[in-house]
Amino acid sequence: MTDPDPDPDLEQAATFHALLQYEIDQASAAIESVEQQLSRAERLGNAEAQRRHRAAARELRSELYELHRLDRALVARFRLAREGGSPAQPSE
Question: Which pTM was predicted?
Answer without folding.
Answer: 0.80
